């Protein structure tokens, strides 16, 4: 699979004193290149524009995971309260990751046309009512619809990757993309233990059927707060907001249809859509099934199952960043071919460990050790994937990010529909999913 080389845009404006500045004359907090993209990541900084965009983007994505998968660790309580069957729970899990497929594609257009700031704010504020609406769920239909609409918030991933791609230099963009996405994905692990803890604490104020509903006010409130902060305190591009840059002549007014067609005609994008479906899609699937699986298979209580299940997502604290870093380092020596080899190796290991995980269903220690190793490779493959994405098409970056991100959700939908709706035991479903991962990953061999 070949990938076109990323080219530069118009040279940045430099002040008379030789210090690069944005459109308003503000000097940058970080060293920048000719496009005003940061050449280093300063994690302890929240300075505008680069590091503020970095931190707000992963926080937004984090909260979307927190909300979307809040139901998973509380399934034992929710299924009893709403009288849900295993097929109904499977359908609700599929709905949670299916709703965002088309939303992610649309988010690519939004980012290319209006900027990532509006994309994040729209999703945070627009899906918050569905999060609060879980408190009113009274049966399968309302439960499924709430999970479906909450899942739209996962499209913040596209805006997150777009934002870091336009803020950071090509030599570190893989690391930047992987870290913002990885720390965002961390929400899928945190929610596995946080929601049961909140639920248990709320039992002091009401019965179980009220406590799990009240718990949803925590992620809902986080979405409202973060949406407002991004809307009013963030910046789209290094030089300013989208509208300001267009008005100043720093960028052309985007032609949405032309950009869309440039993206969908690129065969490289479709290869990445398929492969990303079986790294990020696998993570989404595991977020839905891992805590209930541990609860049922090993007879654990809800808090222990949630805490152990959270280990899968918590690897995002560093694993996805390692994948992006590996992509950047191999690219320094071997170019794009190095990035593709890194991706293939990581994702093939992921598939092998997934197969092994499904065969360790009789031992809890073995399951946990393999689950952690499996999680590391899943998230490193995700990081390596978005070390490649910024180089597929610069002009259609948002579209490509949107389609590839949607591929992740589509992969999860396919995996859950085939393997985890009742036709197979959960452990067999995990094994067969591993076989599919290995096969699909052959597409990226350079």
UniProtKB/TrEMBL annotation:
Membrane topology listed for this record: Multi-pass membrane protein
GO cellular component, one term: membrane
Superkingdom of origin: Eukaryota
Pfam families linked: MFS_1
Keywords from the UniProt entry: Membrane, Nitrate assimilation, Transmembrane, Transmembrane helix
Location in or out of the cell: Membrane
Entry's transmembrane regions: 56-78, 90-111, 118-136, 142-163, 183-202, 214-234, 267-290, 302-319, 340-360, 366-389, 396-417, 429-445
Example GO biological process: nitrate assimilation
GO molecular function terms noted in the UniProt entry: nitrate transmembrane transporter activity
Family that this chain belongs to: Belongs to the major facilitator superfamily. Nitrate/nitrite porter (TC 2.A.1.8) family.
Protein name stated in the entry: Uncharacterized protein
């Amino acid at each position: 699979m070949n990938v076109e080389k990323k080219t530069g845009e118009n040279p940045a404006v430099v002040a008379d004193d030789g210090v690069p500045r944005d459109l308003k004359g503000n000097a940058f907090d970080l060293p920048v290149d000719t496009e005003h993209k940061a050449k280093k990541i300063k994690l302890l900084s929240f300075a505008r524009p680069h590091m503020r965009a970095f931190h707000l983007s992963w926080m937004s994505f984090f909260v979307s995971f927190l909300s979307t998968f809040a139901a998973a660790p509380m399934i034992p309580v929710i299924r009893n309260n709403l009288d849900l069957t295993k097929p109904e729970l499977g359908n609700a899990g599929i709905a949670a990751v299916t709703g965002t497929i088309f939303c992610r594609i649309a988010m690519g257009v939004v980012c290319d046309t209006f900027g990532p700031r509006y994309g994040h704010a729209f999703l945070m504020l627009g899906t918050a009512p569905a999060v609060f609406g879980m408190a009113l769920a009274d049966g399968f239909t309302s439960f499924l619809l709430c999970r479906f609409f909450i899942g739209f918030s996962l499209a913040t991933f596209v805006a997150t990757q777009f934002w870091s791609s336009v803020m950071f230099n090509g030599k570190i963009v893989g690391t930047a993309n992987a870290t913002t996405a990885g720390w965002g994905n961390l929400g899928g692990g945190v929610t596995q233990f946080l929601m049961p803890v909140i639920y248990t604490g709320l039992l002091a104020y009401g019965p179980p059927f009220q406590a799990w509903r009240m718990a949803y006010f925590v992620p809902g409130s986080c979405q409202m707060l973060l949406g407002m902060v991004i809307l009013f305190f963030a910046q789209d591009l290094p030089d300013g907001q989208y509208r300001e840059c267009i008005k100043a002549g720093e960028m052309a007014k985007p032609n949405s249809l032309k950009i869309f067609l440039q993206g969908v005609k690129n065969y490289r994008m479709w290869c990445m859509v398929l492969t990303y479906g079986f790294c990020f899609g696998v993570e989404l699937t595991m977020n839905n099934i891992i805590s209930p699986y541990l609860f049922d298979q090993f007879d654990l209580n809800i808090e222990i199952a949630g805490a152990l299940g959270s280990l899968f997502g918590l690897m995002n604290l560093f694993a996805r960043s390692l994948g992006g870093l590996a992509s950047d380092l191999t690219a320094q020596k071997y170019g794009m071919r190095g990035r593709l080899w890194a991706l293939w190796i990581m994702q093939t290991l992921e598939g092998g460990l997934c197969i092994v995980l499904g065969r360790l269903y009789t031992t809890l220690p073995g399951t946990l050790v393999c689950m952690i190793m499996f999680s590391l490779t899943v998230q490193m493959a995700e990081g390596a994937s978005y070390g490649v994405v910024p180089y597929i098409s610069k002009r259609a970056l948002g579209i490509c990010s949107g389609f590839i991100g949607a591929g992740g959700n589509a992969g999860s939908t396919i995996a859950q529909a085939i393997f985890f709706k009742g036709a197979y035991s959960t452990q067999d479903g995990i094994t067969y999913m591993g076989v599919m991962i290995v096969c699909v990953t052959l597409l990226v061999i350079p």
